[in-house]
Specification:
This protein is 72% helix and 2% strand. The chain is an all-alpha fold. The protein has one domain. Strands 1-2 form a two-stranded parallel ribbon.
């Protein structure tokens, strides 16, 4: 993924410009909007941009479905390329879980869970981008969203209490 870091740097611009409106939409802190937008930028950059910005004219539409399953803890601890596939969805799950109200968090988490499916659908529909559709990537994305959501659910009450304490101190 030679274009990952440049693409992530480019995604800083919309994250910086739109973090407050997205935070208000989620009824959450602007930082939650920033994390969500930057996470989305990372996913788009890593999964939907063609390698080296070249489209493949002779691409064939296919999707690998064999072997698609949740990974075992042993695989997660030993396979290195899996780390990025799981890790790039963690910020999205985290930000979705930190949405302000339970209803908004539930809607955001449903959207975050649908994102790996949407990415694979786009990869299948546009074989020219050279990114292969793979059901295993969907499982890895769902695991990343779930891990991020778990961290958000656990950290949310502490972050909200800290915010109330800082507001009272002003």
């Amino acid at each position: 993924m030679p274009m990952f870091w440049p693409g992530l740097l480019v995604s800083l611009v919309p994250a910086a410009l739109l973090n407050r409106p997205v935070g208000r939409l989620l009824r959450a802190h602007w930082a939650v909007g920033f994390v969500l937008l930057l996470g989305l930028g990372g996913v788009v950059t890593a999964t939907l941009l063609p390698d080296a910005w070249q489209l493949s004219a002779d691409a064939v539409r296919h999707c690998t479905v064999s072997g698609g399953r949740p990974r075992s803890p042993h695989e997660l601890l030993t396979v290195r390329h899996v780390d990025l596939k799981v890790a790039m969805f963690v910020p999205i799950g985290l930000a979705a879980a930190l949405a302000g109200t339970r209803r908004r968090a539930a809607v955001a988490l449903l959207g975050a869970a649908a994102l790996p499916l949407a990415v694979s659908a786009v990869q299948y529909a546009l074989p020219e981008i050279g990114q292969a559709c793979d059901v295993q990537n969907v499982w890895d994305g769902l695991l990343g969203v779930a891990l991020g959501a778990a961290v958000g659910v656990l950290a949310g009450p502490m972050l909200r209490a800290r915010g109330r304490w800082l507001d009272a101190a002003r």
